[in-house]
Amino acid sequence: MKRKIILHAAELFLKRGFKTVTMEDIAKNTGVSKKTLYKYFENKELLVSESIEIIHTSLNDKFNSVLRKNYNAIEENFQIQKIFKQMFSASSSCIVNELKSCYSEVYTGIIEKEMYEFQKIFRQNIDKGIKQGLYKCDLTYEYCKFFYSTLVFNLDKNNTSQTVIDKLEIQAMEYHIRAIATAKGVLELEKQLKYLKKEASRNNLLF
Question: pTM for the full model?
Answer without folding.
Answer: 0.79
